[in-house]
Amino acid sequence: MGTGGSRTTDMFADKESSVHLLAMTEKKIDKLGLKIAQQKNSHKKIQDTWAKNQVLFASIPALKPINGRITSGFGMRQHPIYKRRIHHDGIDFSAPSGTKVYAPGNGVVQYTGYNFGYGKKVVIDHGFGYKTVYAHLSKSLVKKGQKVTRGDVIALSGNTGISTGPHLHYEVHKNNRKINPSAYFFDTFAPESFLTAKPASKQNNSNS
């Protein structure tokens, strides 16, 4: 009797221990599943952020739009025609008529047409609050709604509108506020240098 009772007690104890172990294992599996789900979610967020940043970096107007010398900076200046001090909303590049004008970042052409003061004009919407304006052009090479990539030729410089000579007037807008374009590119880095480096970069990526 004593021996049989001990075995029964042991069996119940073993069952209780097994049930407890099973419950603990289920809890651990649940916790592990939750951690995996959290890690997947975190990994997806990282991937989404990385992808968004790649688009942002490609869209920022970081390329000099024309191969020319800056002749008038951003800010207050004596207007060459009106002969009074007014704010210059962009920068001017000296360039012969017909000089190629490049898209400084990826975007969509928002406007192409003629404006009395700006002459022939192109506006690109780069997203993320960025827009760029190109004025006094001799010719636009893009259409409204057209997608452009950094380095694409979008126009030819000229002397249209209110202008004292052939040049490109260039503006950068951020969230509808006009800002200094010089902060976004290296003046010594010609757009042609970017174009020659671009194919080499693509080839290196394909070989890696």
Automatic annotation (TrEMBL):
One of its GO terms (molecular function) is metalloendopeptidase activity. Residues 88-181 form the M23ase beta-sheet core domain. Signal peptide: none annotated. Gene3D superfamilies: Glucose Permease (Domain IIA). Transmembrane segments: none annotated. This is Peptidase M23. It comes from Prosthecochloris marina.
